[in-house]
């Protein structure tokens, strides 16, 4: 949006003043839409999305050599971003555009070439390529692990709920493993678990964990580089595997040559 946080906040206040309605509820856990805000969103979401897509098409009409990847925030940050130099070298003069969204297939922009997202096995399209199966362990910083030798089994975590870092990123299509699901898988009663510290994106959770501020769920395939560099370590050996995972699919019925090349390259890199 190319707006600073103060500028954005001021524009929101100006809009609320002009409409004489409160659109957002501001609280300690973040910002949520009020009933009036939800009503306005329902009315404007579709026309504004169509306008944005048309603007995108016009602004990029003179750029035929372009590849647009729709991907969720976590995969983009932890897997795709470190490999962008290799992708640019692979594709040569093709412009690579990365569009992030919590739900890439829902917030799809016209002209998208590849979609990479988390989903249930049954959600994937017939021609989708499975990339990473959802395998989740408990991770922390090495210093945190040394300070807490009493935390060695899933049952121990119920008494350490203040250290648990929670992800609250509501999705209409994708369910990510959470603490309740992970602990229940090992027979731990999560009644009264509550929420310790809550974040709305996974990148912040990982950064807080690296700084020794708590314990996080770590997705294999996303935190591997941090594990190899010893920025993170497994707190205990249990790994929970679900029927979900990351998959990749072509967004166009007839994909371009560069889209096919990148699709195959990503699949090979993950298979290594």
Summarize the entry for a quick read:
GO terms for molecular function: DNA-binding transcription factor activity; sequence-specific DNA binding. The chain is an alpha/beta fold.
Please, could you describe this protein's structure?
- It contains nine helices and ten strands.
- Among the domains are: 1-59, Arc Repressor Mutant, subunit A, CATH 1.10.10; 133-244, Periplasmic binding protein-like II (D-Maltodextrin-Binding Protein, domain 2), CATH 3.40.190.10.
- It has helices spanning 5-19, 35-59, 73-80, 84-91, 142-147, 179-185, 202-210, 224-228, 257-271, and strands at 24-27, 30-33, 66-71, 95-100, 114-120, 129-140, 165-167, 197-199, 216-219, 233-250.
- The longest helix has 25 residues, at 35-59.
- The strands form three sheets. Strands 4-3-5-10-6-9 form a six-stranded mixed beta sheet. Strands 1-2 form a two-stranded antiparallel ribbon.
- The chain is globular, with a radius of gyration of 21 Å.
- The relative contact order is 0.16.
- It has 272 residues and is of the alpha/beta class.
- Belongs to the LysR transcriptional regulatory family.
- Residues 1-34 form the HTH lysR-type domain.
- It comes from Tritonibacter multivorans.
């Amino acid at each position: 949006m190319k707006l600073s946080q103060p500028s954005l906040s001021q524009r929101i206040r100006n809009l609320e003043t002009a409409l004489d309605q409160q659109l957002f509820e501001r609280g300690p856990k973040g910002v949520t839409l009020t009933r009036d805000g939800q009503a306005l969103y329902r009315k404007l979401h579709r026309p504004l999305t169509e306008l944005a897509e048309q603007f995108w098409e016009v602004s990029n009409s003179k750029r035929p050599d372009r590849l647009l990847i729709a991907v969720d925030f976590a995969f983009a940050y932890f897997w795709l971003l470190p490999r962008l130099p290799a992708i640019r070298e692979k594709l040569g003069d093709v412009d690579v555009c990365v569009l992030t969204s919590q739900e890439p297939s829902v917030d799809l922009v016209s002209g998208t070439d590849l979609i990479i997202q988390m989903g249930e096995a049954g959600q994937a399209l017939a021609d989708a390529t499975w990339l990473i199966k959802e395998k989740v362990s408990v991770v922390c910083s090495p210093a945190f692990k040394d300070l807490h030798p009493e935390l060695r089994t899933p049952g121990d975590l119920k008494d350490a709920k203040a250290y648990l870092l929670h992800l609250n990123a509501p999705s209409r299509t994708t369910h990510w493993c959470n603490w309740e699901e992970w602990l229940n898988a090992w027979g731990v009663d999560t009644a009264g678990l509550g929420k310790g510290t809550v974040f709305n994106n996974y990148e912040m959770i990982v950064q807080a964990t690296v700084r020794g501020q708590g314990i996080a769920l770590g997705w294999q395939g996303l935190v591997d580089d941090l594990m190899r560099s010893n920025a993170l370590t497994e707190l205990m050996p249990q790994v929970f595997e679900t029927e979900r995972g990351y998959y990749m699919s072509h967004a166009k019925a007839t994909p371009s040559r560069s889209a096919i090349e990148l699709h195959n390259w990503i699949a090979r890199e993950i298979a290594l």
